Amino acid sequence: MEADGFVRRRRMTAETTGNDPGVAGASAGAEVRWLGGRFWGVSESIVGSLTPRIGGETELQTVDFIRSAQDAQTEDSEPDYEGLPQGASTSTHMLAGAVAGIMEHCLMFPIDCVKTRMQSLQPDPAARYRNVMDALRRIVATEGVWRPMRGLNATAVGAGPAHALYFACYEKLKKTLSDVIHPGANSHLANGTAGCVATLLHDAAMNPAEVVKQRMQMYNSPYRGVLDCVRAVWQKEGPAAFYRSYTTQLTMNIPFQALHFMTYEYLQELLNPQRQYNPSSHMLSGALAGAIAAAATTPLDVCKTLLNTQESVALGSLSPGQSQGQGAHRRISGLAHAFRTVYRLGGLQGFFKGVQARVIYQMPSTAISWSVYEFFKYGLTKHQHDKRRAQHMEG
Fold it and tell me: 9, 40, 183, 370: which has the fewest C-beta neighbours closer than 10 Å?
């Protein structure tokens, strides 16, 4: 395992230098270079300046500073992964979550573009695709190589703070509720509840970016860029348009995230019962959890896409009495209205439009998110822990 190899190299360094007071500083320096050099220097100042700390860090610091010098010198074992998160600060979870969210959305953005188009209820004849690869090939061939990336900057701006709040809230509530429901052990109820509450914060930050992104992704999108889209939506539909799908998004994401987190934690119990840093188990658990949750909530995602895009062809096919207002001002508003529209235009099959693209998107997306998040959480927390040990040994 990669982390085990790193631990062995660090121990060998300590053994060959005789466990003198400079060992910890030297090995910590090697660790900094291994984990990304300058990034850790920056993240250290960020992490150290933010509060509050998650329960357990105070105890960890106390133990470090009251440990005798003899015990510190003779102890050559690294803290296990399960122990490290107990001392992780809220800022560590936020920083790791922000990086994970940005990477997840940016790497999978072309597939997300395809998903949005395949969920169209009344697609243009030129935008009817057989499958995901056919869609990507035709979009690139007819609209340009960069067309699947339109709206990426809006997503990146929204994903950072949204996922920072998301993971920090989840970690805090998961620990707090688990201590109450099932002290000293994992609680699936706590995991699901924490995921639901974290979704409220995530979607509040992400929903405006989703509206802009999906409008930019649609076939023949009339907007020149992100700012033009924001300005046009604000002027024509008002600021409420950026949250028109918020209740639908919550209705979809709350069961999605509850199922997602419960499945992920359950698979971790099976594949990684010691809860060590194990990238392969994080990726596999994340991918399976994302696929199951995505398939189950596809009907709600179709409704959310319709509310976000206000698909012009679908609006044109409705009679004035079935939409809000008249003519060009007709709009679909509310989850119930979206459900009726999807059923009227696509029948029961309409609720599963784009399910293939959604599952294909979510599997690697959640795998990337969990593996990147677990890596950065492990690395940042381990760096802080080793720094405290080094300061103690020097003192």
Answer: 183
Tokens of 183: 């002290």
Please give the single-letter amino acid code of residue 50. Answer: L
DSSP 148: G
Q: What are phi and psi of 81, to 5 degrees?
A: -65, -35
Among 32-41, 203-212, 233-242, the range scoring the smallest mean pLDDT is 32-41
C-alpha dist (Å) from residue 10 to 15, 223, 274: 9, 54, 22
CB 52 within 8 A of CB 344: no
Quick one: what percent of the chain has pLDDT higher than 70? 73
Closest among 261, 93, 289 to 189, alpha carbons compared: 261
With 0-12 CB in 10 A as exposed, 13-18 as middle and 19+ as buried, what is 333? Answer: middle
Residue 331: beta bridge partners? 324
CB atoms within 10 A of CB 174: 22
Q: What is the pLDDT of residue 88?
A: 67
Q: Token pair for residue 333?
A: 């508003």
Look up the pTM and report it.
0.66
Give the span between the Cα atoms of 70 and 324, in whole angstroms: 76
The pLDDT value given to residue 267: 93
Residue that is written with structure tokens 């992490």 in the block: 47
- 8 A C-beta contact, residue 357 and residue 132: yes
**Burial of 157 (C-beta count, 10 Å sphere; 0-12/13-18/19+):** middle
Q: Which two tokens stand for residue 159?
A: 């994903």
- Considering the chain, what percentage of its residues have pLDDT values greater than 90? 38
Ramachandran category for residue 251: left, alpha or beta (phi over 0 → left; psi -120 to 50 → alpha): alpha
